[in-house]
Amino acid sequence: MKLTIRCLSVCGSLLLFGCSGTKVDAPHEVKLEVVPGTLTAAHDAYMKSDWIALGERVRDVLLMANAGDLARQNALELLDSAYEINHGSLPSTFKVPSGIEGMAYGQIAGVDPNGPMFHIFIRGEGPASSQIKNITVRKLPNEVLLDKVEKKGTFEVTNTSTGSEFELDATVQSLPSDGVFSVRLELTSGVVSEGSFIARGLSASASPVITSPAHASSLSEPNPMVRWAPFHSPERKPFERRSLGVYVSRQLPGDRDERAWEYFTMKPSEFDGIRIGDARGEGEAKLKPGGYWLSVTAGESRTFGQIRLVRRSRTVTAFRVVP
Questions:
Q1: What is the model's pLDDT at position 11?
Q2: Domain map of the chain by residue range?
Q3: 169 by DSSP, 3-state: which?
């Protein structure tokens, strides 16, 4: 028997209601579309709580050339429901090499004094950070988004108080849409690791509002107060983890800058402001006279296997400290 999206949506609503207690209404008017067998298999995996198989079948649906928009959307909504049941974390078969941990792929949408800005990045930490020969991120089937060797993005390894970390970051004209992405990591030792993940809803449509200091203001206070309006992106899901970062950098000649002070928290709802130089952050106790960039970044994330998937919303402004 051939199932249609209309049938699968109605049946899925009843099944999801029984599993999670949250009713998912089937659309009233839905174009009939033949359901790929892989989508049926994804629903079967969901009912069996086989989360690895669910992710693999959703991946297969998204990569099928003959799968229609309704089938793809149904698969992604099924994935969201699985994330909700598992508190924002799903397992996968992808394993990162030994010596690399905390890997994350993210998309940043925001505004700076010049207008809208978009970034994509892949990052991680661990002793093998300095041994990365190449790292490549693709949106399948064949769009290269980031590549260290091909210089698609800026690669940097930094040493911190807790060890080494790496990041490959690129400015882009627009952010990638939902889909299946792959990451290939090659170490100087010859070890190669490659796997895929599903990016879902990582493009934010709004950014934080900085209420203080005002843009381009001149301040005599070497420890200005930074304030922002309460914020989460319109795309945020209840199961996603939230974070907030405040970053201050000193403007240098030649369109360069250097870190002056920063603060990060995984409990953003507890703060709507912090004073630059606060001991809870890292960096300078007092700002020297000069020009500065200030960014406030709200993050929301879910975890797919060993990779964290991050949506970031960022606002950048400028101010000066005067004697």
A1: 46
A2: 5-86, 101-105+116-199, 210-321
A3: strand
Which three-class secondary structure state does DSSP give residue 215?
coil
Confidence of residue 160 (pLDDT cuts 50, 70, 90): confident
Query: CA-CA distances (angstroms) from residue 87 to 95, 179, 284, 289, 306?
Result: 21, 21, 37, 46, 15
| DSSP codes, 70-119 | HHHHHHHHHHHHHHHHTTTEE--S--PPTT-EEEEEEEEEEEETTEEEEE
Q: Is 191 exposed, middle or buried (0-12, 13-18, 19+ CB in 10 A)?
A: middle
Cβ count within 10 A of residue 54: 25
Beta bridge partners of 125: 101, 165
The Cβ of residue 249 has, within 10 Å, a number of other Cβ atoms equal to 19
Per-residue pLDDT averaged across 101-114, rounded?
A: 95
Contact 62, 179 (CB under 8 A): yes
C-alpha–C-alpha distance, residues 272 and 227, integer Å: 6
Judge whether 247 and 294 are in contact, CB under 8 Å.
yes
Of the candidates 117, 176, 116, 177, the one whose C-alpha atom is nearest the C-alpha of residue 146 is 176
Strands laid side by side in the 225-228 sheet: 210-212, 225-228, 273-275
The average pLDDT across 12-24 equals 41
Q: What is the pLDDT of residues 57-107, one digit of tens each?
A: 999 999 998 888 999 999 999 999 999 999 999 999 988 888 999 999 999
Fold topology of 101-105+116-199: Immunoglobulin-like (2.60.40)
Q: What is the pTM of this model?
A: 0.87
Identical topology for domains 101-105+116-199 and 210-321: yes
Q: Are 206 and 234 in contact (CB under 8 A)?
A: yes
For domain 210-321, the question of CATH label 3.40.50 is answered with no
